[in-house]
Design goal:
The protein is an alpha/beta fold and about 425 residues long. It has 2 domains: about 230 residues, no CATH class; about 140 residues, Nonspecific Lipid-transfer Protein, Chain A (2-Layer Sandwich). It is about 40% helix and about 10% strand. It has a 4-stranded mixed beta sheet. The protein has a 4-stranded mixed beta sheet with strand order 7-6-5-8, with helices on both faces. Strand 5 and strand 6 form a beta hairpin.
Length: about 425
């Protein structure tokens, strides 16, 4: 499973289980995933621990009595929390986690996941700015996720089956987050966890999640001043040879904010586009006007490049099945610019020559009111009423076939908006 982690994660991230807002609001709009090395996974190396843990890892969804949905849910929640307590106790007696505990077998070791409202995408490598949350998945987490969301998921199942699946995945997400926190300094974990579970999330943490381990030390040398960012920066350095998607656009550390190998005009275009990345909506007002997934088509150097401009919506927490709009933190929304197509459901498209990209970016930066955005759309946007709409739309499919033929398919335009 680890050797092909991108494939297995894709089977549930963009499979039928992960369709619809209620299904996808269990995850953040962007986060990174990495894995625990099997040589340092007690479930694999310690038969006695595995024997104690296995009965607690049963998953819901096999029994679908709608009248006892809450009773079934509580039963599996309690088993899972008993497992987390056993896990915390067992790992407290093991050596503190080090960099060697993180799997680095091949380029599947690092994954990036992006949610676009009611669908999601996954790619190898660490894409975008350092996200709010990171998942560290051990074998029980990865296997349960696959079996819960793919093998045992019945797309035609009743409400009880669907609800149990969704509720249990909330526990899996929390388990991956808490496993990551083992790498953080013990005294910093409460603050990081509190940032992930703000407001009503605190109630959910008290009601349904296992207590946070705030005592067992980490084996990493991280200061308590933003240790999560320190960890992510060191992860990027230590795993640079395995990172399938080096990202100079969203994590530009100087004046070179573009990929290697581009013609001069496209290098200048990417340099300009990097100004849109990783800024909060409080500073870049146009984010409030953009949909989930916007595609940019840029022509230059005798070719065309296609970029995905992804809107990452911020939430105070993702701990509940309903009421997502109550947890939006719109001024914290950001954009990620990904060179290639990272969506099956494009919401809009802009097309322009490379020489106009700087003007396009400047126009987006000046947007304050709807009328300002309308001018941008009128000049560079490809509305459904555009006389060359189908030419541009089918060119996206051609681009995918050229650059990623194994993953090529037909894009779904049902969610294309006429901004």
């Amino acid at each position: 499973m680890l050797d092909n982690a991108e494939y297995f994660v894709r089977t549930f991230i963009r499979g039928p289980v992960c369709r619809g807002q209620i299904a996808t609001d269990v995850i953040r709009d962007n986060f990174w995933v990495f894995f625990q090395d099997p040589q340092h996974d007690l479930f694999i190396t310690d038969p006695a621990y595995r024997g104690e843990a296995t009965p607690l890892l049963a998953m819901p969804g096999q029994l679908d009595e709608i009248g006892d949905l809450l009773g079934l849910w509580r039963s599996y929640r309690d088993k899972r929390n008993a497992y987390e307590a056993l896990r915390t106790e067992s790992y407290s007696e093991a050596p503190a986690p080090q960099w060697a505990d993180i799997w680095r077998g091949n380029d599947n070791a690092l994954l990036s996941i992006f949610r676009q409202h009611d669908s999601a995408s996954v790619r190898k490598g660490l894409v975008g700015e350092i996200p709010q949350t990171l998942w560290w998945m051990d074998y029980p987490l990865l296997e349960r996720t696959y079996y819960q969301l793919v093998v045992n998921f019945d797309v035609f199942g009743n409400v009880s089956h669907q609800a149990q699946t969704r509720l249990y995945f909330d526990l899996i997400r929390n388990g991956a987050e808490q496993n990551f926190l083992r790498l953080m300094p013990a005294d910093a974990r409460k603050a990081i966890f509190g940032d992930w579970y703000q407001y009503s999330g605190k109630l959910k943490a008290w009601m349904d999640y296992s207590p946070l381990d705030r005592k067992t030390p980490s084996g990493l040398s991280l200061s308590e001043d933003n240790p999560k960012r320190q960890f992510a920066e060191q992860l990027l350095q230590r795993f640079a040879t395995l990172n399938a998607r080096p990202d100079p656009i969203n994590r530009c550390g100087g004046e070179r904010c573009y990929r290697d190998g581009l013609p001069a005009d496209l290098r200048q275009a990417e340099q300009a586009l990097s100004r849109l990345a990783s800024k909060p909506a409080s500073q870049l007002k146009v984010i409030h006007r953009l949909p989930e997934a916007t595609l940019l088509r840029v022509e230059g150097g005798g070719r065309r490049e296609v970029y995905s401009l992804l809107r990452n919506r911020a939430h105070s927490n993702v701990a509940f099945m309903l009421g997502e709009e109550l947890r939006y933190q719109a001024d914290l929304d950001t954009l990620t610019l990904y060179p290639e197509v990272m969506t099956s459901y494009p919401n809009f498209m802009f097309s322009m020559p490379a020489r106009e990209v700087a003007d396009f970016v400047a126009a987006l930066e000046r947007v304050k009111a709807p009328a300002d955005f309308d001018k941008v759309v009128e000049r560079w946007g490809i509305r459904r009423t555009h006389p060359q709409f189908w030419q541009y739309f089918h060119d996206l499919t051609a681009h995918i076939r050229e650059h990623d033929p194994l993953e090529a398919g037909v894009l779904d335009m049902n969610r294309y908006q006429n901004l």
